[in-house]
Design goal:
Layout lengths: L1 E6 L3 E8 L2 E9 L6 H14 L9 E6 L5 H12 L4 E2 L9 E2 L9 H13 L5 E6 L2 E7 L4 E9 L1 H11 L19 H28 L6 E5 L14 E2 L3 H13 L7
Parallel strand pairs: 1-4, 4-5, 6-9, 7-10, 10-11
Antiparallel strand pairs: 1-2, 2-3, 7-8, 8-9
Length: 262
C-alpha cells in the first residue's frame, strides 16, 4: 500500500492507495511544528482506527508547502513505517514542462494537482481550481506544459480578514447562498464570500481561455476542501477532491521507490 500525504498550511490531508484504488482518506489540522513522534503516531493511529494495518504501508509519497515540517515528516516515516518517503519537489519526474520563470516557486501541491489532471485527461487543455487556504488556478496545456497560474486569498482567509480587521463584522458559516442581496449582516458576508468566489472563477477562467487556449474550451476541474460548495454553480466539468492524493500516487509511480539515506 502507498500512503500519500499532502501537508498544507491549514490541514494535513492523507490517503492510502491499494493498487490504484484510494481506500482511505483522513485529515488533521496542520501547524508549523510537529515532532517526528507526533507525526508518526498520528499516521499509524489514523490507519489503525480505519482498520488498515500500518505495517502494510511500504511506500510513502509526500508534498509539503510547510518546509519546517519536512525533517519531522521524514524522520517520522522512517521511525514508524521503516520507509524512506518520496517528496514531490523540484528535480523529480513529473511529466510536465514547467513554464514558470523560476520553476522552484511552484508549490508541490499545485504540481500534484496538475499531474493527476493530466493523467485523468491526457492530451487536453486543463484548468485546475483548488479551493484551499488560498484559491489557486493551475493552467496545463495539452502538450503537457504547466503554463502557470493564479493565487488569491481563499474563502476562510477572506472571512477571517473581515472578522479580524473590522469592529463589528462577525465570523460566519461559509455556505452556498442563492440570493446575491443579503438581508442581514451575516447574509451579506456569506453572499460576498460565495458569489465573490463564483464571479472570480468565471472571470479568471474566461481570461485564461482567451490568453492560453485561443478560445478553445479546456477541461476545468474543481478540487480542495471548499470545492463541493460550488457544485451547483456550473463552474467545472467535474469536482475531484482527492486530486492532490492521486497526483502524489502517480508521481511516486513515475519516480520509483527512494533509497534510504544514511
Amino acid at each position: 500500500m502507498v500512503l500519500c500525504i499532502d501537508v498544507g498550511n491549514t490541514q494535513i490531508f492523507g490517503g492510502v492507495f491499494s493498487g490504484k484504488e484510494l481506500v482511505l482518506q483522513f485529515r488533521k489540522t496542520s501547524r508549523q511544528q510537529f515532532s517526528s513522534d507526533e507525526i508518526g503516531i498520528f499516521l499509524r493511529s489514523a490507519l489503525s482506527e480505519n482498520k488498515i494495518d500500518p505495517d502494510s504501508v511500504k511506500d510513502i509519497s509526500i508534498c509539503s508547502v510547510v518546509p519546517d515540517l519536512n525533517h519531522s515528516l521524514r524522520s517520522g516515516c522512517l521511525k514508524y513505517f521503516d520507509a524512506e518517503p518520496f517528496f514531490l519537489k523540484p528535480g523529480v519526474k513529473t511529466g510536465l514542462k514547467i513554464k514558470y520563470r523560476n520553476p522552484l516557486e511552484v508549490g508541490a501541491d499545485r504540481i500534484a494537482n496538475a499531474i493527476a489532471a493530466m493523467h485523468l485527461f491526457p492530451n487536453k487543455n486543463l484548468i485546475v481550481v483548488d479551493f484551499g487556504t488560498a484559491t489557486t488556478f493551475c493552467v496545463i496545456s495539452k502538450s503537457k506544459e504547466y503554463l502557470g497560474g493564479i493565487i488569491l486569498p481563499g474563502l476562510k482567509i477572506s472571512m477571517e480578514a473581515l472578522e479580524n480587521r473590522t469592529a463589528q463584522l462577525p465570523k460566519v458559516e461559509i455556505k452556498e447562498i442563492e440570493d446575491v442581496i443579503g438581508r442581514s449582516t451575516v447574509e451579506s458576508i456569506q453572499s460576498g464570500l460565495y458569489h465573490g468566489q463564483v464571479g472570480m472563477v468565471r472571470e479568471i477562467k474566461s481570461k485564461i481561455i482567451k490568453e492560453a487556449f485561443a478560445d478553445e474550451d479546456p477541461i476545468v476541474i474543481g478540487t480542495g476542501g471548499f470545492a463541493r460548495l460550488f457544485e451547483t454553480a456550473k463552474l467545472f466539468n467535474l469536482i475531484n477532491q482527492t486530486l492532490v492524493l492521486e497526483g502524489l500516487y502517480y508521481a511516486y509511480m513515475m519516480n520509483g521507490k527512494p533509497e534510504k539515506e544514511n
